[in-house]
Structures are given as structure tokens and as C-alpha cells.
Amino acid sequence: MYNLLKGKKGIIFGALDSNSIAWKTAERVHEEGGEFVLTNAPVAMRMGQINELAEKTGAQVIPADATNLEDLQNLVDKSMEILGGKIDFVLHSIGMSINVRKGNHYTNQNYDFTQKGTDVSAMSFHKVMQTLYKSDAMNEWGSIVALSYMAAQRVFPDYNDMADNKAYLESIARSFGYFFGKDKNVRVNTISQSPTPTTAGSGVKGFDGFISYADKMSPLGNATALDCANYTVSLFSDLTKRVTLQNLYNDGGFSNMGVSTAVMSAFVENEQE
């Protein structure tokens, strides 16, 4: 441990269970000396084991619906009260598609479901940042990070409307990041993570195929949830003070690959059979 986050305080959204990236990030932040408040939607908290994580890391839990401005204001106010001042870092690790969950094809969406998914997965990021911004809740040189996926740039047919949500999320990071940087010296970035076996990801049809394909394509293999947690810690630290408005790939090199020998070999073998 390097004490990279000693004295820093923040909010971590979305820790559900030990498989989730937010959970791993909370553990690593704690190990690096950071303090934080944990939050998730009340329904998610009933499903997960967030209280176990809170006990392990000495954190308090504040339930909040990230789509609800009153909940978010309460979260920010209480977090500053608990942590004794302004906030240095925030992780937005939230995503949901009811269309995916219900098995609705991308060409046959229920638009009420689509709107709800956009609100939870992307618009909530704007709402979180707007609440922090208006409350002047972030310390100078603070860091805000949201988790994205390559489907924001490229077609993954079964990722469905989540691909649109991630594209919107990344756009919000850039647009709001400009104002947060100019007015408050706060940086905003997204991490485009390898497909990772989490509770959220497992609902996507063919997700095991995404994981296997990406692993074969990437020269370093897939980045794990722990890899993402470590990367997030670096973005929360003072070592990355001038990094902002970026979508940063933590994917073993996948994003720059055209094809790999492992993937080509698989096609050749199939043809020979």
C-alpha cells in the first residue's frame, strides 16, 4: 500500500456484492487510506451485502436513489457531515437496462423501460454532478469517475440500449467535466473497462461470449474488477491532477486491436472442421 489517498474523503455509488467493481474499489480506497460513504438504491441494498462492506471498511451507508434529486442532496449533505468537510472523490458505478432484463430486443424496445434505464445509467451521473456542483461539495483537485464500456463506441448487438446509455454517460462526463474543471478545478473521467463478470453484466445475453472474445483479442487479457479498482485509485490520487474529460481504456489493449492470432486461429480451426 502507498497511502495514495491518505486524508481523502469521498462517496462510492453502486457496491452490491464482492464481485462488483465498486466493492473492489471501496476495499482498495480503504487500503490506500481514504475514507468514504457508501450508497446504493434502497432496492439494491436489500439485494446485496453492502453492510458487510461498510463494517469491513469503517464506512457509513446512506441509501439514495441516484435518479432522485432530493435523495442526492441528502446524500451529499450527510456525507459532508459524516466526513467532516468537502469531498475529494466520487465513483459512479451504476447501470441498469430493464429491456435487457426483460429480454426485449434492441429493435423492439419498450420506451418506458428505455427512459428508465437512461435515467439510472446515464442521467443519474449528471444529477450527481449537478448536486455536487451546486452544493460546492467538491474540494479543489477532486476527482469524479464513472464506469463505461466499449459498446459506447462499437457495436455489441446484445448489449442493447445499455450501449446508448454508456455513450450518453461519456458525453455527460466531458460536458460537465469542462465546467467542473474550469470553475472548481475538479476532474471528471470515465473508465472503459473490459467486460467483467459482475451482477450487472451477467444479465446481458451472451456476456460470457463477450468476456471470452475480449480476452482472446487483448494482448494483456481482460482487466479484472481489481484492476479497475486500482486504476480508479490512481485517478482519485494526486498523481493524475491534470487528467480530465477523458474516456480511459482499462481493457488489456482491446480497444486498439483489429484482430489477434488467438481469434484468427479459432476461425481457422472452425473452417477446417
From TrEMBL:
Pathway: Lipid metabolism; fatty acid biosynthesis. InterPro entries: Enoyl-ACP_Rdtase_NADH, NAD(P)-bd_dom_sf, SDR_fam. The active site is at Y149, Y159. It is an enzyme of class 1 (oxidoreductase). One of its GO terms (biological process) is fatty acid biosynthetic process. Gene3D superfamilies: NAD(P)-binding Rossmann-like Domain (3.40.50.720). The keyword NAD applies. It holds the Pfam family adh_short_C2. Its EC number is 1.3.1.9. It catalyses: a 2,3-saturated acyl-[ACP] + NAD(+) = a (2E)-enoyl-[ACP] + NADH + H(+). The keyword Lipid metabolism applies. NAD(+) binds at G14, S20, I21, I94, K166. It comes from the Bacteria. Keywords: Fatty acid biosynthesis, Fatty acid metabolism, Lipid biosynthesis, Lipid metabolism, NAD, Oxidoreductase. One of its GO terms (molecular function) is enoyl-[acyl-carrier-protein] reductase (NADH) activity. Belongs to the short-chain dehydrogenases/reductases (SDR) family. FabI subfamily. PANTHER family: ENOYL-[ACYL-CARRIER-PROTEIN] REDUCTASE (PTHR43159), ENOYL-[ACYL-CARRIER-PROTEIN] REDUCTASE [NADH], CHLOROPLASTIC (PTHR43159:SF2). This is Enoyl-[acyl-carrier-protein] reductase [NADH].
